[in-house]
Amino acid sequence: MTAKNDRIESANRDRWSAAEFSGLLGAAKSGANWAWRILVEAYSPSLLGYARLRGAAEPEDVLSEVWMAAATGIQQFDGDEPGFRSWLFVIAHRRAIDAGRKGARRPHPADPASLEELSTRSA
Question: What is the pTM of this model?
Fold first, then answer.
């Protein structure tokens, strides 16, 4: 791990006490917008970086899907801050894989120059 990653990890560990995180999580589970905003601001940079590292063509879309899944599943989550972070990264991992599968199935648009070349050959 690099020194930068060590600093980021340390900042995340030291961000909230166990009691503070429990209160934040409880507020998010209750639908408090302020709590969600704090969580999104705290974890999105790392999650977006992870989606990019996984090679997602649209990492911002993966990030959006992570937060939608988290909002849907947060009532079932029961754990501390490191567990929450791990849970988010499991979701990100799965969504990045799903995005890769979708990209593999999606036909790639043809280059307009090569289409023009094909049309002149067939004429």
Answer: 0.73
